[in-house]
Amino acid sequence: MNINQNYLNLKDNYLFAEIARKVKEFKAANPDKDIIRLGIGDVTLPLAPVVVDAMKNAAIEMGDAKTFRGYDDNQGYDFLKSSVAGYYAKKGVSIDENEIFICDGAKSDTANILDIFGADNAVVIPDPVYPVYADTNIMVGREASFIDGNIGNTFLPMPDTNVKFDIVYLCSPNNPTGAVYNKEQLKIWVDYANSIDAIILFDSAYEAYVCDDNLPTSIFQIEGAKKCAIEFCSLSKTAGFTGTRCGYTIVPQSLVRNEVGLNKLWRRRQGTKFNGVSYIVQRGAEAVFSEEGQNQTKEGIAYYMQNAKIISDALSKLGIWYSGGKNSPYIWLKCPNGLSSWEFFDLLLTKANVVGTPGAGFGANGEGFFRLTSFGDKDNIIEAMKRITDILK
Ligand code: MLT
Fold first, then answer.
1. Do 317 and 211 lie in a common domain?
2. Domain identity same for 219 and 79
3. Are 176 and 132 in contact (CB under 8 A)?
């Protein structure tokens, strides 16, 4: 019997588990401290009323033999796939329903997608970025290469023609930096990927936060992307589904490698390993895409973006460099006074009782940086920024 030795190459804890561990330890030693959590990107507003109603009605259907549902198509109910296709149509993107796979969020699918790719592919991951991409490659024993995001390229790395790759992850709006690729930049990525037969794994989990109409919210708004890209999206941050779990992955029919359609491979993988998202949750997700649902969820996004402004304004006053917070719920800042990102984490936790996320957790280039989320309660955010200002000014 042998374990998967690759796991021994991972850090002991997943980034957010490590933060939770440290906060729990601090809280145990300081039970009277009121800790404000701006670390993990977890929403705080409740589900929109229209979503709750849809889920209540679905629960009632499940309690009646005449309308009860058991297993269905594990790729998602047609009603939800049709709503997702309608959402894309409004972006000017035509997606066929059989290109849509309903899932429980972008995290699982950006990780699981590796199942359909050969072990010998060269993988490129931007640094810094959502740690799931690097961790899941380590788990399968693959040594990925990294492309640098830094202040010089506004944390938006472009293809490096010296680095050959078969698969690249792009996350836009980026987690953690909040940077967003424009259409011209994405076109360069798409053309380059097509020229070398590579695949782009495009994580658009934060697309709903893009306020600038000129910025793309889907890679499929870029000509040629359907021949080289898979898109992952989630309702976690769009509609407060972090605890409810629902997302979707788009695998175009025209995405073919080694004469095999990747849509077919992914369908085969999901058919074997995934039994679908619950009917109740899919009805709630359908409601997100209704007109009322869009209006109600946009109110939530506007609330978080107001919080982002409170954070950004406080950082500007302190003279601290930051990015994000404009088309993204994340604010990425340079740690003051040359502190490392974990030193700054400890300082904020112990002196301001505020939790953020150390940039180093998102890759080597995140060292010296720090992420704050705007997903908190407004009064807490005001209080957190007051405390941070007090210890830094
Ligand atoms: C994050 O904080 O980076 C994300 O919220 C974590 C996640 O969604 O998995």
1. no
2. yes
3. no
